[in-house]
Design goal:
The protein is mainly beta. It contains one helix and nine strands.
Length: 153
C-alpha cells in the first residue's frame, strides 16, 4: 500500500478519535516513551476506565522507521492496590502504521500498567504490545515501551 494512501486513511481517523477524546473533557496528557518504539505519547481519558492513546515514534532496528499508532484502552483499578495513587491494569485494541520500504499496517493489542500519582498530573506507564501486521503481508511483531505523560484538564 502506498504511504500517501495510508496517510490519507490514518490521519483523518486519528484526528476524529482525538477530537472525540478531547471533547469527553476528562483530561489529556502528552509525554514520551522509550523502548521500541521511542517517541511522543498522547493519552486522552474518555471516562474513568476508558482512554484513547496515540504515539508518533521511531522503531529502531536495521533502519530507523517512523511509526504512528492509536489505541482504545480499558482500565481495571481492582487488579493491583497501592497505598498512594492508583495502578490500573489496562488492555486495548488499536492500529499502527510503520513507514518502511513496504509500509506495514497492523492491529495492536496493548497490555500494560499505568501508575497515576495522587496529587500530581502525571502518569507513568509500561506496556507490552503484540502486533499483527496485515499489510503488506501477515506477520507478528511486538512493541515494548516505558513512558511518562503530563496531564492537562
Amino acid at each position: 500500500m502506498k504511504r500517501t494512501k495510508l496517510l490519507f486513511i490514518f490521519i483523518p481517523v486519528f484526528l476524529m478519535l482525538l477530537t472525540a477524546a478531547l471533547e469527553a473533557g476528562n483530561g489529556w496528557g502528552i509525554g514520551f516513551m522509550v523502548g521500541n518504539p521511542t517517541g511522543l505519547s498522547f493519552k486522552a481519558w474518555t471516562g474513568k476506565t476508558r482512554a484513547f492513546d496515540a504515539g508518533a515514534a521511531w522503531a529502531f532496528g536495521d533502519q530507523d522507521k517512523l511509526q504512528l499508532h492509536a489505541d482504545y484502552l480499558f482500565h481495571n483499578y481492582r487488579v493491583i492496590k497501592v497505598e498512594s495513587g492508583q495502578l490500573p491494569f489496562y488492555v486495548g485494541i488499536g492500529a499502527r502504521v510503520k513507514f518502511e520500504k513496504d509500509t506495514r499496517v497492523g492491529v495492536r493489542i496493548p497490555v500494560g500498567l499505568c501508575y497515576l500519582f495522587k496529587n500530581h498530573p502525571i502518569d507513568i506507564f509500561f506496556e507490552v504490545v503484540p502486533i499483527i501486521d496485515l499489510a503488506p503481508e501477515t506477520e507478528m511483531d511486538m512493541n515494548v515501551a516505558l513512558g511518562i505523560r503530563y496531564f492537562f484538564k
